Amino acid sequence: MAFDGFITKSVVNELKNNLISGKITKIYQPTKDELIMGIYSNNNKYYLNICINSANCRINLTSNKKTNPINPTSFCMLLRKHLSGSKIINIETLGLDRLITITFECCTELNDIINKKLIIELMGKHSNIILINNNNIIIDSCRHIVSERNILPANPYLYPISEKIDITNFSFDEFSSIIKNNLNDFTNYICSTFCGFSKTYLNYIIKILNININNITNQDIHSFYNYIKETIANINTLHVTCKNIEFNNKNDYTIVKSENKSNLDINKFIDNYYYKKEKNEFFQNYKNNALKIILTILKKYEKRLININYKLEECKNMNDYKLFGELITANLYNLNNNINLDNITLNNYYDNNKPININLDKRYSLSVNANLFFKKYNKLKNTLNIVSEQKEETKKELDYIESIIYSLNNATQISEIDDIYLEIQENILNKNSKRKKENKSVKQTSAPITLEIDGYTVYIGKNNRQNDYLTFKIASKNDIWFHAKDIHGSHVILKLNSNELINESIINKCASIAAYYSKSRESSKVLVEYTFVKNIKKPKNSKPGFVTFSNYKTVLVQPKNNFL
Prior knowledge:
There is one protein chain. The chain has 13 helices and 21 strands. Among the domains are: 5-161, ibrinogen binding protein from staphylococcus aureus fold; 167-257; 447-557, no CATH class. α7 packs parallel to α10. A six-stranded antiparallel β-sheet has the order 14-15-17-16-18-21. By secondary structure, the protein is α+β, with helices and mostly antiparallel strands.
C-alpha cells in the first residue's frame, strides 16, 4: 500500500497542528502490532493509532474503536508507566523517511522535567515502536531485534541507515544529471534511489503529467521535478489530500494536490481506508478458516466414499462364491474329498452345464473349500447391506457439507460466518455430543435478507440455519415457500395474508429470486419448486436446511434479484 514518505510527512504535519501540548490520557495495545494513545489537546479528545503490521504499517488519528485486551502486554504497561500524563512537545519526521519521532515532556518521581521520545519506524516487516530516554538510550521496544543496531533495552538508539537520497535537498541540475543516466528503468530507479516514493504515487505522477516512460524528455524531467517540489512545499498547507486510485488492479491511494482541504483530512482518509481494509482482511481470514475446517471434513468424507465404493466393488463377485460352494457340494459324491487340489473344473448346471474352473486353497479339502466359499459369500452379503447404508449416509453428509461450502462462499458478513461456525460445531464436529441439544438453543446471530416487491414482503435465507429459521419460525402456514430444484440454495418465503389471492407475476418474481440465490445463479433458466409452508416438513434428526414437502408446483425462470 501507498503509506509512503509523502503520506507520512502529510499525516505528521496534521498531527503537529492538533496534538502539540496535548496530554496523554490513555495507552492500550489492542494487538501485538498496534498501539493506541488517548490524547487530550485543545479541549478535544484524540486517539492516535500506531500500527507496525507489515502490510498495514501507519500512524494516524482514529475514530474507530478497538477491543482493549483484558491483560495488557508488558510493553503497554511500560508505556503507561513512562508516558501517562506526559505532554507532547514535538512530532517530526526524518526527511521523507517513514520514521517519526514524538517527543514527550515527562515528570520524574522527584518532579524533575525530562524528555522522552517514542520512535516509530514504519519499514514494512522491520517496523517497530521504540521508547528512548533523554540520553538516547532504549528503554524498551515493541519488538526486540538483534542486529547491527540491536534494538534492545539499555542499548543506545541508532537511526536506521538509509542509502536512499532525500530529493528535498537536490537542485534540478543535480536531479537531472542522475536521472538522465537511468531513463530506461525510470520508475524502479526513482523508487530505489530517492526517499518517500511508492510505486503507486510515482505512477500517479507519470499519468497526470502524461509522461511516456519509453521516451522521457528533458521537459518531462523538469515537470516531474517541479511537481515533486510543489507537493513538498504544500505539505505544510491545506493544499494536499489523499485520493483513492486503482493500481495493479487493486484499490490503493496516494497524495494529490487539493484546493479545498479540511483539518485532519488526510488522517481521516487514512483511518477510513485502513479500517475498511482491515475489516475486509479479517472477514476473509475468518471465512477462509471456516472453509479450511469444512474442506478438511469434506476430504475425509470423500475418502470414506472411495473406500465404500472399493468394498462395493468387491461385493459384485459375491454370488460367484455362492455358486462355487454349491457346485462343489453338489459334486462331492462324485469326488475324492481327501485330495487337496489347486483348482477344479466342474459343470455349471446354472449355465447349461458349461465347464467352470474354480481356484481352491490347496491346504484344505474340497468340503472345507466349499464352506469357505459360503462363508465368503455370507460375509460379502452382510458387507453389502452395511456398506450400502453407509454409502447413502455418506452421500447425504457430502451433500450437506457442500451446502455449507455454498453458504460460506456467498457469506458477506461476520455474523453469517458465526452462524456457519455454530452449524459446523453442532452438526459435524459435535454431532454425537451430549451437549448438542444445549447448542441448538443458540439464537440466530445474523438476519435474513428482506425485500419489498409489489407490496409483498419476501425473506431470503443466507445459510442453513437461516433457512430453518425462516421456514419454521418466521413463516406462517399460508405463506409460500420457494427453492431451486435439486440444487443448493436459499429458502425464499413470500409473506401473505390469510386467504389472499396471488397473481402469477409475484410467483415468478419470487421464483427468480430463489433461482438467483442458488448454486445455479449463472444459468439462463432454473427450475424452481414452490408450495405453501404448511406442506413443508422437517424430518426428525435431519440436518439444518433439509426439508421434505408435498403438493408443490414448479416454474422455469431466469435468475434475477432486481425488478426495478
